[in-house]
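Quick one: structure tokens for this chain, please?
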Amino acid sequence: MRWRRPPLQHPLAPAFAHAIESLCTALTPSSKRNYDIVVRSFLVYLGTKHPKITRLEQLRRDPHILGWMAHLRAQNPPLATATCIGRLFALRTIFHELARTSHRAELAQLLLREDIPRSPHTLPRPLTPEQDQLLQQEFMRRNDLGGNVFLLLRSTGMRIGECADLSYDCLRCTGPKQWAIHVPLGKLKTERMVPIDAFGRDLVHRLRFFRSLDPLPPDGRLLARLGSKVAIVVQLRDYLHQVCHSLGLPTAIVPHQFRHTYATEMLRSGVSFPVLMKLLGHVDPGMTMRYVDVALTDLEREFQLARSKPRHLAPQPKTSAIPLRTGLDGLIDSLIAAQHVMEMFRRSLSDGDARNRLLRLSVRLIKILAEIRKLQTT
């Protein structure tokens, strides 16, 4: 029997619960659980250290919020940086919702954006060419359910959670000998169409065949679920772990590295940066840049191009076959391309003042893009 925590006993618990219900109307159950965990942590701290706080108007930034933040940092073992960032973001979002619903604007100033540390910069982790080739060959040799799932991930750049949510009729014909996969709402609450070739079409047909053999009744999904979505994701991760072990590859390889590999391959094949963002389902250029690996061979190729054609001193992204847009859309596309050129050139420099200045300029362009996108909504 699963152990459940007793209901939270605190005078502010109903107000926070109402705010969570309002926020999670269109979110997944896992998102609601995360909000519940953060609220429990905050109210348990408040009840222990400041038991006299019983009303929202009594909350103060110092000592209540700053004290809770210090409590998070003092935990042993320490929380991961990403976990702390997530909890601070969640509590800040809840305070904004409470400020809106209770008409108390001061609640939105209890936890500021400056209080949340920046996420640690993680380097892209695409598979090496040798790892990529070995894994694809092994998946094709096995030709089982797990192998075809990972071949589909490698061919489309999907997240493993998005693949688990694919519908049975996700394959769409977009033209003569042209197909695409409809990827459902994913991590960023966006859906998209990812073009595939004949091999990708065959992978979907194979997964449909495996679905037809499963004793579970049809539920509209491409992959059968005996339990929850988490269960099938864990099962696929275990499958990848076993395959890597059998090939003598590092067992630390995770499914998301197939997405990094796909993104790097697309960019090297000449796909423009705005199109790559659409393929990955990103809305922030900075997020896409984290997926791209610039290898030494890329730098050598761009260096030789710069020497042979001086007008290409900064690596230029290849133009897309899509016609140039006008108005704000065209301005956004141009700024995204400029930010990409700047980032590619910055990565080719050695550490120094010039590299740091280009980084600051790149961040400014991202902020400018965010402000211009707001104009689209007006």
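The first strand starts at residue 171 and ends at 175.
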